[in-house]
């Protein structure tokens, strides 16, 4: 019979790991700052499910807006079902993103951060062509 994945051992690891986590600490997925007093954090498994990487955002990251642990779980689940993932990259900073429906074209070509949207709108006001996205970082989705 397989062991439950989130049983007593996992709960202890979360409890004692959160106690030892410094404030602020970097997220293991996006690298942005986390605060255990404000953010909801998850103990993130490695990509193979054998061990733990560390803590990552469960609530939206205050810097990039990603829910790192849930996003990776969704990507892995979609790949397990045989779905192909579209990788879109921000034309300004190069971060991967998914475009929401019903947004303006400036937001659909960027990751949605204010700086990126403002820079793209400024280049359009100057009547320059939209920039090409940066080269992929080599991260496998």
Please state the structural category.
alpha+beta
Strand order of the largest sheet: 1-2
Number of helices: 4
Please report which band the strand proportion falls in: under 5%, 5-15%, 15-25%, 25-35%, 35-45% or over 45%. Answer: 5-15%
Shape: globular
How many discrete domains? Answer: 2
Topology as H/E string? HEEEEHEEHH
Rg calculated over all Cα atoms: 18 Å
Please tell me the overall pLDDT. Answer: 77
Intertermini distance: 31 Å
Topology of this structure?
Layout: H1 8-20, E1 25-26, E2 33-34, E3 41-45, E4 52-57, H2 68-80, E5 88-89, E6 96-97, H3 105-108, H4 114-125
Antiparallel strand pairs: 1-2, 3-4, 5-6
What does this molecule look like?
By secondary structure, the protein is of the alpha+beta class. The chain folds into 2 domains: 8-80; 88-125, no CATH class. The chain is built from 4 helices and 6 strands; from the N terminus they run αββββαββαα. It has helices spanning 8-20, 68-80, 105-108, 114-125; strands at 25-26, 33-34, 41-45, 52-57, 88-89, 96-97. It has a two-stranded antiparallel ribbon with strand order 1-2. Strands 3-4 form a two-stranded antiparallel ribbon. A hairpin with a 6-residue loop joins strand 5 (88-89) and strand 6.
Features:
141 residues, alpha+beta, 2 domains, two-stranded antiparallel sheet, 4 helices, globular
Short description:
This protein is α+β, with helices and mostly antiparallel strands and 141 residues long.
């Amino acid at each position: 019979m397989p062991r439950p994945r989130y049983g007593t051992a996992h709960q202890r690891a979360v409890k004692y790991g959160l106690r030892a986590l410094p404030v602020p600490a970097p997220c293991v997925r996006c690298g942005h700052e986390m605060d255990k007093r404000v953010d909801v954090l998850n103990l993130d498994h490695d990509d193979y499910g054998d061990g733990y990487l560390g803590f990552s955002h469960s609530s939206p990251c205050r810097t990039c807006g990603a829910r790192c642990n849930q996003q990776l779980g969704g990507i892995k689940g979609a790949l397990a079902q045989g779905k192909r993932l579209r990788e879109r990259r921000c034309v300004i900073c190069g971060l991967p993103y998914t475009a929401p429906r019903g947004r303006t074209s400036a937001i659909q070509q960027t990751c949605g951060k204010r700086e990126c949207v403002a820079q793209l709108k400024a280049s359009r006001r100057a009547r320059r062509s939209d920039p090409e996205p940066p080269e992929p970082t080599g991260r496998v989705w």
